[in-house]
């Protein structure tokens, strides 16, 4: 009887250990929510309204020199050959005329991604004509 009691205790101990470990097993049940948050910005997907969640950037665009200036970061962006360059100062060959710029609000830290649109919308020399019309 003593021997069968020991076997029973061993069996119950093993069974309880197996039961304890099997109870910890989880099954993967996924919920498809239809979209995943943008991991770069943590915001909603591109097709959804931002509701103020996306970062806002304001640039001064100088059409005559094809230069952007970000006043919050104090950096310039300009086209050098086929590449855009960013720096805290402009090279000596680029001259900007104060007042000959347009303010552009964007939700990207790379304003040159919409350069073709800005170049078409604000051709060099057109700001002076618009400013004269508004002064009248």
List keywords for this structure.
single chain, 136 residues, alpha+beta, rod-shaped, disordered C terminus
Describe what you observe in this structure:
This protein is an alpha+beta fold and 136 residues long. The protein has a domain at 57-135. 29% of the residues lie in helices and 19% in strands. The protein contains 3 helices and 5 strands; from the N terminus they run H-E-E-E-E-E-H-H. Strands 4-3-2-1-5 form a 5-stranded antiparallel sheet, with no helix packed on it. It is rod-shaped. The chain starts with a helix and ends with a helix. 7% of the residues are buried.
**In whole angstroms, how far apart are the ends?**
113 Å
Q: What topology, given as strand order, has the largest sheet?
A: 4-3-2-1-5
What's the helical proportion of residues? 25-40%
**How many DSSP-defined strands?**
5
Beta-sheet strand percentage? 15-25%
Question: How would you classify the helix and strand content by structural class?
Answer: alpha+beta
Shape: rod-shaped
Multimeric status of the protein: single chain
Query: Helices and strands, in N-to-C order?
Result: HEEEEEHH
Biggest sheet descriptor: 5 strands, antiparallel
User: Radius of gyration, Cα only, in angstroms?
Assistant: 32 Å
Q: List low-confidence stretches.
A: 28-33, 131-136
Overall mean confidence score, pLDDT: 77
Counted by DSSP, the helix tally is 3
């Amino acid at each position: 009887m003593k021997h069968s009691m020991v076997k029973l205790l061993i069996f119950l101990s093993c069974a309880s250990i197996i039961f304890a470990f099997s109870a910890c097993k989880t099954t993967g049940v996924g919920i498809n929510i239809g979209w995943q948050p943008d991991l770069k910005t943590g915001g909603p997907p591109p097709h959804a309204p931002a509701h103020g969640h996306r970062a806002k950037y304001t640039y001064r665009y100088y059409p005559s020199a094809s230069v952007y200036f970000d006043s919050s970061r104090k950096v310039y962006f300009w086209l050098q050959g086929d590449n855009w360059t960013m720096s805290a100062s402009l090279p000596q060959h680029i001259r900007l005329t104060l007042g000959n710029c347009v303010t552009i609000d964007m939700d990207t830290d790379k304003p040159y991604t919409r350069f073709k649109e800005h170049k078409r919308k604000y051709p060099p020399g057109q700001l002076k004509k618009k400013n004269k019309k508004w002064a009248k």
